[in-house]
Amino acid sequence: MTTQVTTGLDQQTRDIVKATVPILQERGGEITKRFYQLLFENHPELKNIFNQTNQRKGDQSKALANTVYAAALHIDQLEEILPQVKQIAHKHKSLNIKPEHYPIVGENLLLAMKDVLGDAANEDVIGAWEKAYGVIAGVFIDTEKEMYQEAIDTVGGWVDYRDFKVVDKVAESDVITSFYLEPVDDNPFPIYQPGQYITIKAEIDGEPHSHLRQYSLSCAPGEGIYRISVKREDALADNPAGIVSNYLHSKVNKGGVVSISAPSGDFTLNQNDTRPLVLISGGVGLTPMMSMLESTIKQQPEREIYYIHAAQNSNVHAMKDRVKEIAEQYNHVHAYTVYDNPSDEDNYDKKGYIDYEWLTSILPSNDAAFYFCGPKGFMRAMYQNLKKYDVADRDINFEFFGPAAAITE
Q: Which ranges carry the FAD-binding FR-type domain (predicted)?
């Protein structure tokens, strides 16, 4: 990526924006919550793009609040937020966000600021933020333009959505099912980087709008197929059943067709690193880990790998036989299983959780490349374990579809 950041904002505008940093830190969540209310009231068609489940949970509001706060904090040097911009831009590309969406977002964001902040959002503040938003939006638009162009220039690449047929459907556990996908048009389709994801666009009978969901690709690139492994999200006391996951499990069968976006995401395996690779997953978080594992044994068969997976028990543990097969075939692969609630028949290496003492007892050193993925609480615990283990920040890599602060703070 070659995106350049030139604000072109006068000093007075930047000073006013920076002066809003404390109030954004305090009330950013209120502003973004109100923003989404206004956005969907004024533009209900955008419900076809934004994940309404994340809206109910508040995850989207928190992520946007963090971005707005970071932009205000670094308004003098917006290049400081480029890593964050690029991560979000990958998601925007996967959701097919376009330049014409940004003025709509800006208008409603300013309206939300006025509503929430009242007199504190005077004419000078709103004017400064209008200018600043134009610059910030331009950074996103330019970054995403490069990504879209890269997709177009890639052999078999595409923009928007493309129909893929389900050539196989395999139950991996009681709750996880894999879908093997090939393009309906039989034209080439691009390989991807281990760890990347695609977006499924689900048009479900009885639903008033489209549902978009991102799923990590769970096999090694270059196998002539895309595979996603989807956990069926059943209803819990505080959460309704997953609309798309249940639709895929119950309605989409072998021979069916789904619309997907091209692979995206910056949570990718560094295949130039030869140090030990540590892959840690919880539950369905194993999907990008499996892609990284399968890819590494093909590309770096001598590389030391520690594959650690946590699940409730064997009934919900997907792909355990494949991991066992790999560990038996490759002497450099060390596989460990942790079950929180095992049955009497289960085979596992540890009961309970992946704690610091156990984790450090099975690893040779903290000088390794660490990748982890799983539920939010699991990921927060893994991050804390690795920080306690004095793992360098550059070696801590994780995928989380939400604000990173939920993991790191």
A: 159-270
First and final C-alpha spacing in the chain = 29
Asked whether the beta carbons of 380 and 37 are under 8 A apart, the reply is no
Q: Which of 25-34, 55-64, 193-202 has the highest mean pLDDT?
A: 193-202
Percentage of the chain exceeding pLDDT 70: 94
Tens digits of residue pLDDT in 57-74 = 656 777 777 888 888 888
Decide if 353 contacts 381 (C-beta within 8 A).
Answer: yes
354: buried, middle or exposed (CB in 10 Å: 19+, 13-18, 0-12)? Answer: buried
pLDDT at 384: 96
Is 102 a known active-site residue?
yes
Whether residue 176 contacts residue 284, with contact meaning beta carbons closer than 8 Å, is answered with yes
Which of 236-250, 314-328, 348-362 is the least confident region?
Answer: 236-250
Q: Which of 102, 148, 226, 339 is catalytic?
A: 102
For residue 90, pLDDT over 60 is answered with yes
Q: Is the pLDDT score of 5 beyond 70?
A: no
Domains of the chain: 11-153 (1.10.490.10), 162-260 (2.40.30.10), 277-408 (3.40.50.80)
3-class state of residue 117 by DSSP? helix
Residue set of the binding site: 92, 197, 213-216, 283-288, 400-403
List C-alpha distances in Å: 176 to 108, 179, 237, 245, 381: 39, 10, 21, 10, 23
User: Cβ(266)–Cβ(87) under 8 Å?
Assistant: yes
List, edge to edge, every strand of the sheet that includes 277-282. 350-351, 333-339, 305-311, 277-282, 369-373, 396-398
Which are the contacts of 15, defined by CB distance < 8 A and separation ≥ 6?
none
Task: Taking residues 188-206, report their average pLDDT.
Answer: 95
| 17 DSSP assignment | H
Which amino acids are annotated as binding site for FAD, given as ranges?
A: 197, 213-216, 400-403
Q: Cα–Cα distance between 249 and 246 in angstroms, integer?
A: 5
pLDDT band at 53 (very low <50, low <70, confident <90, very high): low
**Does pLDDT of 183 surpass 90?**
yes
Active-site position among 36, 144, 161, 348: 144
Query: Backbone phi, then psi, for 157, in 5-degree steps?
Result: -75, 160
Q: Is position 339 annotated as part of the catalytic site?
A: no
pLDDT at 55: 56
